[in-house]
Amino acid sequence: MYDKTVRRRRAVLGLLVACSLVLLTAYFGESGGGTLHSIQRGTSEILNPVQEGASRALKPVRDLFGWFGDTIAAKGQVQELRSERDRLRSEVLRNEVRKDEYDRLSKLLELDGALGLDDYGPKTGRVIFQSATVWYATIRVDKGSDDGVEVGHPVLNEEALIGRVSEVFSGAAQVTLITDTTMKVPARAGARQEFGIVEPASAGNPTNLVMSLMQPGARVSVGERVVTRGTEPDDRRQSLYPVGLPIGAITRIENEGTDTQRVHLRPFADLRSLDFVQILTRPRGPRT
Amino acid sequence: MTALTVSLLARLAVLGVLGVVVQTAAVSQLPIAGANADLSPLLVMAVGLLCGSLAGGAFGFGVGLFADVVSLQTLGVSSLVLLAVGYGAGRLREARDPEGTLVPLAVGAAATLAFGIGFAIMQFLLGVDAPLSWTLIRQLLVTLLINTLLAVPIYALVRRWLHAAMPDDPRRRRRRAYTTGGLSPLSRGPELRR
Q1: Which residues of A touch B28 (CB under 8 A)?
Q2: Quick one: which of A92, A254, A286, B67 could link to A262 by a disulfide (CB 3.0–4.6 Å)?
Q3: In B, which residues are within 8 Å of A47 by CB distance?
Q4: Which sign does the torsion angle of CA A264, A268, A273, A274 carry?
Q5: How far is B90 from chain A (nearest CA, A)?
Q6: Residue A163: pLDDT band by 50, 70, 90 thresholds?
Q7: Strand partners, A209
Q8: What is the pLDDT of residue A35?
Q9: Closest Cα of chain B to A107: distance in Å?
Q10: Domain range spanning residue A6?
Q11: Left, alpha or beta for A208 (phi > 0: left; psi -120 to 50: alpha)?
Q12: Of residues B58, B72, B132, nearest to A174 (C-beta)
């Protein structure tokens, strides 16, 4: 009797391990449109409304936790924000002068001025799901192909670029965040508009990105802003990320001034607490 | 080993689905010190401790597979790691039958650590092209700490949920037998001497 029980237990264990390995191998071996991927997408499609409902139902709990977290974090930020306020005051004065000059030049050259986000067809979505593991930097929002969302569309929160759409369902979309190890964003940095590629510094790190500069010896400084470049680095094709979307600020530079310098930046967006996001459904502008 | 009745299987299925949905819709969106709790290894650990290795392993496989499907992650990764976690917790119960209120806490911590390390190894084996950072290790440690604190309440909730469907809990039966004096040789001493 005991032997029979042990044999049954081992047989079931072996069977489940084999199932896992077969699934793993088959999933890895097939293309994005393969059977397992389709089953996965289909199941997700069915479960999206359930997750949306659960997300809405559990929002008060999230808000309560968020309130505690925000209060603790806010106390620590007071001093930092005071010094930033002083710095921004002087910057505002300088910018007002520059804006006057810009307005006059724009009128002279009959330019339209910078495009607002409205021209890019933004769709506001609620985050209904966040990956449970730090190895997958993904979220899901309640806007999908029914709202004109397509794979590749850039996604922002109220602060900056946070990622791009990687999978679309009828009523939801999976967004891969800029901290995912598969992400690379063409960007430019600083007053000299140095070009480079922004990618995660390491797996599972939501506060540290790294920018590899395209030109050896390009000069950037700590504190300078990094924004999307608007074109692909290889052949200057227009990128799916519109030009000028903020990404982050430079925090430190490794091997500064050398050909191997690595620029570290902190994303402007807090990628650990996302609630509402905007998907740009016309990333190439109003003409598309 | 607990017999897998239809009622128990149904309760395990509801527990697994609910656990993954709550994890992805709420718990993953509640950052605490830069990380968040991960309910799946705790649920699997609790089922393993309560129902044994077979149920623990199968539940771990199911929860992992469902989590991979829902999250659009590589299929088979979570199921393989959680299968090991559930089986290990179940074997611990079958081989040692540990008692004490802090057992779920220790086993929950061990399950979370095993899941975190196992998942990380699988990711690197699958070719994640990024270095291991201190932040990642810190996140794993914070998750370990949060999960250790949650282990006892989660275990209590799971036990409460599965209680009605577990007719042959050996610990409960043993305790009942001793407290009612039915099987204790001490209480049966005079009877035996006669």
Answers
A1: 129-132
A2: A254
A3: 21, 70
A4: negative
A5: 11
A6: very high
A7: A200, A265
A8: 86
A9: 47
A10: 2-59
A11: beta
A12: B72
CATH of B6-169, picked from 1.10.1760.20, 3.40.47.10, 3.40.630.10, 1.20.1050.10, is: 1.10.1760.20
Cβ <8 Å between A62 and B132? no
Check residue A175 and give its pLDDT. Answer: 93
CB contact under 8 A, A204 and B139: yes
Which region among A72-81, B19-28, B118-127 has the lowest average model confidence (pLDDT)? A72-81
Chain B contact for A16 (CB, 8 A cutoff) = yes
Are the Cβ atoms of A136 and B76 closer than 8 angstroms? no
Asked if residue A123 and residue A204 are part of one domain, the reply reads yes
ipTM above 0.90, yes or no: no
Rounded CA gap, A249 and A70, in Å?
A: 22
Q: Which of the four pLDDT bands, split at 50, 70 and 90, describes residue B146?
A: very high
For B126, phi then psi, to 5°, come to -85, 0
Residue A43 buriedness (CB in 10 A; 0-12 / 13-18 / 19+): middle
User: Alpha-carbon distance A201 to A252, whole Å?
Assistant: 12
